[in-house]
Amino acid sequence: MNYTASESRYSHMPYRRCGKSGLQLPSVSLGLWQNFSDFDLFDNCRNLLRVAFDHGITHFDLANNYGPPPGSAEETFGRVMQKDFRPYRDEMIIATKAGYDMWPGPYGDRGSKKYLVASLDQSLKRMGLDYVDIFYHHRPDPETPLEETMMALDLLVRQGKALYAGISNYSADQTREAIKVLKELKTPFVIHQAKYSMFERWVENGLLDVLGDTGAGCIAFSPLAQGMLTDKYLNGIPEGSRASRNHTSLNPDQVSAAIVDKARKLNEIASGRGQSLAQMAIAWLLKDTRVTSVLIGASKVSQLQNSLESLKNLSFSSEELQRIQEILE
Ligand SMILES: NC(=O)c1ccc[n+]([C@@H]2O[C@H](COP(=O)([O-])OP(=O)(O)OC[C@H]3O[C@@H](n4cnc5c(N)ncnc54)[C@H](OP(=O)(O)O)[C@@H]3O)[C@@H](O)[C@H]2O)c1
Predict the structure, then answer these.
(1) pLDDT digits (tens, 9 = 90+) for 71-81
(2) Looking at the whole model, is its pTM more than 0.70?
């Protein structure tokens, strides 16, 4: 069926400025790390992307290695781009990354200029795009000089293959150093992509301060702790869930009794707010204005719709925050 985007797509989504840049991102963005591979049903992938865009999710996050096999999420996105999204390209912020193992030999991994330049060319081909909006270095590479990696990002922006540069998984100190280099180069560095959720709060120990001080944005990945901050695992590991499937990033052991106990208590607070746990987990991240966007995943349209409802209640009483803090400690 032909796709025409919903006319009300900009009615409900709040957009936030990415640091001090000119770029605005939706408060909730969609990532294609999982659920968009060659092993997933194309119609479900297509539907997820359509529903997301119809609700104001203008930002889609990919990486060269998302799949499996690596590259297949970009190919899936490319197919939907071709079939549905082509007329809307200028309404979208599409990101990809390089930094993890992608092809054999010494040039398909880490942070060399050789790898980053070749990888972005491959990503553009897979997605059928002339440029991406954000290109990230996916993780720090201790063996490549930081200047080389940052100069590769700068080059790709100057070539017009990416509009903005980003980094991911860099520590607070590494981020400060990277930003120093990028500022000297006058590269439009706009964003850090960091793992951040109620269960994973390392960014609060320095990184958010660095980003706030330097005028960069932050996009929080795995905000639902891969599903552990939803009601999914409160009564065991259901069939078909990420923790139940083989070869996924969520090991059943990670869904420990201690985690489930915290999730149950948090779920009670969420119920009191008239929210699902997923909705409260997203709202909790957005209470910090330094968080530009919350980068969710979803395997079903119903999950995406549920998560988007978080935007209806983003405020917390000090008592709620205190109770949440006590559970998380
Ligand atoms: N930069 C990096 O190094 C890095 C690393 C990881 C991820 N990321 C980015 O972050 C994105 C999101 O990561 P993530 O998938 O781990 O995010 P997440 O939002 O924490 O987890 C998503 C998973 O939680 C479950 N879920 C989502 N909404 C739900 C709801 N409302 N109710 C019940 N269950 C729900 C689904 O799992 P089921 O499959 O069990 O249904 C879904 O696949 C990725 O796609 C990627 O773009 C970046």
Answers:
(1) 999 999 999 99
(2) yes
